[in-house]
Structures are given as C-alpha cells and as structure tokens.
Write a structure and sequence with these properties.
- The complex is a heterodimer of chains A (about 400) and B (about 325).
- Chain A is of the alpha/beta class and about 400 residues long.
- Chain A folds into 2 domains: about 5-295 and about 375-394, Rossmann fold (3-Layer(aba) Sandwich), CATH 3.40.50; about 300-360.
- Chain A contains 19 helices and 8 strands.
- Chain A has helices at about 15-25, 35-50, 65-70, 85-90, 105-115, 120-130, 130-140, 145-160, 170-190, 190-195, 200-210, 210-220, 220-235, 240-255, 270-285, 305-315, 315-325, 330-360, 380-394, and strands spanning about 25-30, 55-60, 80, 100-105, 165, 260-265, 290-295, 370-375.
- In chain A, strands 3-4-2-5-1-6-7-8 form an 8-stranded mixed sheet, sandwiched between helices.
- In chain A, helix 15 (about 270-285) links the parallel strand 6 (about 260-265) and strand 7 (about 290-295).
- With about 325 residues, chain B is α/β, with parallel strands linked by helices.
- Chain B has one domain (about 5-220, about 285-315): Rossmann fold, CATH 3.40.50.
- In chain B, strands 3-4-2-5-1-6-7-8 form an 8-stranded mixed sheet, sandwiched between helices.
- Classes of the chains: A alpha/beta (about 400), B alpha/beta (about 325).
- The interface between A and B is large, with 88 and 89 residues.
C-alpha cells in the first residue's frame, strides 16, 4: 500500500495536513454549522486519494445531502460509492489511490446493527416491527449520534480503507456524538432499564410502592411504559454485544490513529465554537490534529496604507474623476464608480481586520493551522475540491 | 394576503447553521418589543450566543428583561420538566425532582421526542397562558427542526393515554393554527443554505402542522454598480487607467480595485443563488431581505440594525 512509509514518528510531528493525514487512519472534521466542514472533509479526502494513495473514504453524517453535491454524486446512500476515476481525469489529475464517498443513513444503519446483534430471527423481527424502534431510528433527533460513531467503527475495523475522513454535525452536536458511545453503554446498565425490563408483575409491585413511578405512570400512561418495556426487553437481548461494541467505538475515538480537524471561519460565533470544541478535545485527551480556517479574506484588504487612498476615492470622487474619466465615461459616472469602489474596500477592510483579530485571539491552536482563501466561486465538483485542497495540503 | 409575521403569537426561527439564525431571531424580537409587544425570545440550543445580541448577561431558563418589554431565556429541558411537574402534578416532593429528572434523561434518550416535547411544550404553554404577546424561538437548525415541530404528533402516536397525551392536544391546536404559530426559515444567498431552505420549506409543509410564515434571506451583498458603471470599472482596471487613478488618488489603488472585483464576483454568484431560491419556493411565500452588515457582526448595535432592516422589509 502506498501510504506505509509516511507514518510519522513521535519526534517528527506533523507540520502539514499532508503529513497529518499520512499518519492517521481516521480524521474527524468538526466545527460550527456553515463553516465548510463537509467541503473541507471532502477536499482533504480527495487530496489524500490523489497524493497519498490507498483507499480513502469520505463519510458524511450530516442529515443534509451536502457531500453529494460537492462530489457531484447524484445519489449515494449508506453504501460506499467510488468516485469515478474519470472525474479525476476530467480534473486533470491522476490519483495514486481511490476515493469513495458514503452518507450515513440512520435508519438503514440501525437496521443493520439490529440484524447483527439480535440473538435470533424472532427477536430481530419483533424489534424491527416495534413502533418505538421505528420512531427512535427514523423520526427523532439525536439517534444518529451513536450510529455515526458505530458506523465509523465498523468501517474502520473492516480494514477496507486506509483513511476515513468523517464529517460531523455542528459542534454542540458533535460533543453529543463524542459522548454517544458512553451514553449508549450507560443506558444499557441503567437502573431504569433494569426496572423497565423486569417481569411485569414485580414492576407493578414496585410501581405501587414508589411514588416516583406513579408519577411516571400518570405522565406517560401505563401503555406507553409497557411499550417502552417491551421494546427494551427485546433490546436487552442485544445488550452484551451492544455494550462491548459501544466501548470499542469509544476506544476508536481516542486511538492514536484518530485525529480531529476543527474547521472554522473567522466570524466570531464559529470561532467561539471552535475554541470550545478544541477545549473539549483537550479535556478528553483526544487528538487535535489541525485547525482549518475557511473563507479567509485576502490579506491585501487589510493593508493600512491603502485606507487613506480608499477614503479619498470616497470623499474626493468628484475631483478625482475628471482626471481619469477621459475615454472611460462621463465624469459623473466615473465619480460614482470611484465612490462605490472606495466604499466597498473600506467595508471589506473592516471585516478582514475584524477576522484577523479573531485569529490572533485564538488561545489554543494545534500544530497545523491551514487557511483556505475566500473562493469567489462555489465549490460544487471534484476539480473545485482539489483546488481548495491544494491551498491547505502542504 | 399573507398573515403579518409579528401578528402571530409563536415564531420558530430556523435555518442552516451559520446563516445568522440567532441574529434574525434577536432582530425580530427586538422589533416586536419596540413596537410595543411584550416579547419573549428563547434560545433553544443554548449556545449562549443570544446574550451577545443584547449585551446582557448569559440567558437562563428564567426569562430576564434585556430591553424594555423584551425578555430572553434559554431552554433547559430539565428545568422545563421540573416546572411542568410543579404546575401540572402539584408534585410536593421538590427534593425528589432531581433524580426524577435524571431518570427522565434516560427516558428521553430511550424514547426520543421527550426532550423535544418538553421544549415545544414549554413554548406553547407560554403562548397559551398569554404571558407574552409574542414568543420568538431561536429554534434548532434545519436538520432537526422538523423533528422538533412534529414532536407532539410523534408523541401522540406513541403514547395512547396519560397526561402527556392529553397535553399534546392543546399543543397541536396552537402549533397548527397559522394565526398563532409560524415557522421562519433564515437563509443566505449561498449554495447550501439555498438548497436546504428549499428542501426544508417542503418538509415543514409536508411533515408538520406548522405554517411556513416567511423566508428571510440574510447577508445580501450590496450591488456595487448600476448600468454602464461596470464597463467603467473594467476600464479602470486597465493598466494605463489604473496608473492615472493612482496618481490622482495619491497612492496604490491596486488592492482597492482588486477588492471591488472580489465584491462584484461575490455579489454575482450570490444573485444566482437568490434566483434559485425564489424559483424553488411557493410564489405566495413572503421573502424578506437583510443586508450584509459590514460594520458590526454582533452586539446590540447589530441587532438594532437587523430590526430596522426587518421593519423596512415588513413595511412598518
């Protein structure tokens, strides 16, 4: 495999994303919504497939179908799909490896999990047909947190891929997602579950004896509690496998082969979330590999020597215009253009300066900090992803 | 004639992360309060960002008046449960509510929908009790809002009897009444926010009882040039004219012209997305536009600018 030689030892720390990803098997991209996590993950996946070789998978767990757009794949689901080599050829690139993409389908992944862990066909069918199960896996929020980690673990241990780049939901969710395996394990060993899955008779005795359960009963109704109980009775049969699995999943996150990439723009709210997330990673002893700053405005906008010139274009447009209008347009029209151009520069300068301050104020920064310039065109295809990737790779 | 946004009682403001959902929720609430409505603004995913928009201390579950007639709170499902138990069950054993809430945390994980119902329930309750003229919710992002708005139906399907089921009935009455409740999607003239807005508009109409009240497009960049002016600009970028301009303006104008070119391209790319957005949404759905704020990104000053822009768009 093409990537073996690139493994970095402890004393040669990764200085670039290329080195970082050469040394890791899982890269988890996280950050606030709208900062370009998915695009960054896809771009890095494409770069890794191109330059490092091997089989690279980009897995997106975000409910929205963003990666599909970015990779130009109309339809891809829970199953990993190879990005056609022709797409690389069209981009003028001959990749050393192969790029795959997959989107997390929560429902399908849960079904797979049940099929794998159910002790027998009868239990399996009963679980899959249970109304609560359908709700948990389909309708409601948060069930994708655990399943995302579970799927990542499954893909990783299957050993099919040399590198998996994962894209996550926005940060506060991403924290949930770090905790999901532990929560799942906790849940199966909880008192509540033991009570719910106790034989119905003793449960009634318990219930009568404890005001606590009377409350629960009057709030939710006996039938609902019975539904829950039945569901968990079924689920309980899978508990040992589940708990063990959840623990393994948690271990994968803290494994040396896993790294986290925090993505942010330089707007204040995303920067705050990035800081929060970097702190959380630190506290949990997880590996913070890189900070990727996206949509960074060009540095020429911050030039202070240009500021008075732009101001003059605004204030003295009427006197400057006649000196340059010859052969271009009427002095009035030219003056309006000069005023607009000067004002626009000053506007963008405020933003660029504010964002550069944000960067300077970042308290904790990892070894690798990469900046992606503001692309004035949207990135919607593989060539675009590779162009973006080139900016941050080395 | 679409219903006036601020005449409703409960507005869920959602949108893709990063488009300025909280900014718009804060602006709408400030505008309503300034127009004399007693207003509650509630931050649901408790990122604490709301505090910055009013330059007040961190928001808590108990609402605080951050501006005249404007109260801010952040949702906390455990607190919501405690309040619910206190009000509905007259549970005397306050001390025992702690462990109960922890247990409910497990139930909430086990039977999802419980956390959502505690959130939606609290908000509907404030509306039902007429504590405020308007409740503005800085709701969850696009990926989760349908689950949140549909939680009462979901619970009703699962829970056949008991207090929770009875509670869902009046919640659904409030949520499904377009005179009372509306959803607002905040978008931005960029590719993914536009895609998500169009998709979400369909899902809100198809999968929830809540009326889609408006789409608010945030961060609309100004048009730099009118007719003929872009041709003039292109000429100015020719070396001989750039030199003449530099001499007349007394300094290097290269970065200024380059910056303007970037601004024009950004604006143009975004105009294409705006077109796509208009075409992808129902024709009778109100679309409001908010300008990109260069000078301030945060703070009461920015919130006030948003409120003013909204006020203009709403024709006040």
């Amino acid at each position: 495999m093409a990537r073996g030689g690139a493994q970095a030892s402890a004393d040669e720390r990764a200085r670039t994303l290329e080195q970082l990803l050469a040394a890791k098997e899982i890269a988890i991209s996280c950050g606030a919504g709208g900062v370009g996590k998915t695009t960054a993950a896809a771009a890095l996946g494409a770069m890794a497939a191109t330059h490092l070789g091997g089989r690279v998978l980009v897995l997106t767990v975000d409910p929205a179908r963003r990666l599909a757009n970015a990779l130009g794949l109309e339809q891809f689901g829970n199953v990993e799909t190879r990005v056609p080599p022709e797409e690389f050829a069209e981009a003028g690139v001959e990749p050393r490896g192969e790029l795959y993409a997959a989107m997390l389908d929560t429902k399908a992944s849960w079904d797979d999990l049940v099929r794998r862990h159910a002790p027998d066909a009868k239990t399996r069918d009963a679980i899959l047909a249970n109304p609560l199960y359908a709700n948990i896996t389909g309708k409601f929020v948060q069930s994708h947190d655990y399943i995302a980690m579970e799927r990542l673990y499954e893909l990783h241990t299957a050993g099919t891929y040399d590198l998996i780049v994962v894209d996550t939901p926005p940060t506060r969710n991403a924290i949930d997602f770090l905790e999901a395996p532990d929560r799942m394990a906790d849940f199966f060993s909880s008192r509540l579950l033991r009570w719910l899955t106790a034989p119905a008779k003793s449960r009634l005795v318990n219930m009568a004896s404890k005001p606590f359960y009377r409350v629960a009963d009057s709030i939710l109704g006996t039938q609902f509690l019975e539904d829950i109980a039945q569901f968990f009775l079924l689920f309980q049969t899978m508990a040992p496998g589940f708990v063990q699995r959840a623990e393994s999943v948690a271990r994968t996150l803290s494994d040396k082969r896993t790294t986290f990439l925090v993505v942010s723009t330089l707007e204040s709210a995303p920067v705050r979330e990035a800081e929060f997330f970097m702190g959380e990673l630190d506290q949990r002893g997880l590996h913070l590999g890189a900070l990727v700053l996206n949509k960074v405005l060009p540095s020429y906008l911050r030039r202070t020597v240009t500021t008075p010139v732009a101001r003059r274009l605004c204030s003295d447009a009427a006197t400057i215009a006649p000196q340059v209008a010859d052969g271009i347009g009427t002095p009035d029209d030219v003056a309006r253009v000069l005023h607009e151009v000067g004002e626009s520069f000053l506007n963008y300068q405020v933003v660029a300066t504010r964002e550069s301050e944000q960067q300077a104020e970042l308290a904790r920064t990892p070894e690798v900090v990469a900046s992606v310039p503001y692309f004035d065109q949207d990135i919607a295809d593989l060539p675009g992803l590779l162009r973006l990737g080139e900016q941050i790779w080395r | 004639m679409p219903l006036d946004l601020l005449d409703r009682r409960l507005l869920f403001v959602t949108g893709k992360g990063g488009v300025g959902k909280t900014t718009v929720a804060a602006g709408l609430a400030l505008l309503a309060a300034e127009r004399g409505q007693r207003t509650l603004v509630c931050e649901v995913d408790a990122k604490g960002g709301m505090a910055d928009f009013f330059e007040a201390g961190p928001t808590e579950f108990d609402p605080h008046e951050v501006q005249p007639r404007l109260f801010a709170m952040s949702m906390d499902t455990e607190e919501s449960l405690k309040e619910y138990l206190k009000l509905q069950l007259k549970v005397p054993m306050l001390a025992r509510v702690g462990p109960l809430a922890r247990t409910f945390d497990f139930i909430a994980d086990a039977a999802p929908g419980v956390k959502e119902i505690l959130t939606v329930g609290k908000l509907c309750w404030e509306v039902r009790e007429r504590h405020y003229d308007l409740v503005v919710v800085d709701a969850v992002a696009t990926g989760h809002i349908v689950g949140q708005l549909a939680a009462p139906q979901g619970i009703r399907e699962l829970v056949k009897v008991g207090m929770v089921r009875n509670q869902t009935d009046w919640m659904i009455d409030i949520l499904a009444d377009p005179r009372q409740t509306g959803a607002v999607i905040v978008s931005a003239p960029e590719e993914m926010p536009v895609n998500e807005t169009i998709e979400l508009a369909g899902r809100i109409s198809g999968e929830t009882d809540v009326d889609l009240a408006a789409v608010i497009v945030n961060r609309v960049l100004p048009e730099l040039f009118g007719r003929n002016e872009e041709a003039i600009f292109d000429q100015l970028r020719e070396p001989e004219h750039t030199e003449a301009l530099a001499a007349a303006a007394g300094g290097d104008v290269g970065p200024i012209l380059e910056g303007a070119r970037l601004a024009v391209t950004l604006r143009r790319t975004r105009a294409g997305h705006l077109d796509r957005l208009r075409k992808g949404l129902p024709g009778d759905l109100p679309l409001l536009y908010l300008p990109y704020l260069f000078t301030r990104a945060q703070g009461l000053r920015a919130t006030r600018q948003v409120a003013e822009a909204l006020s203009q768009e709403l024709g006040y």
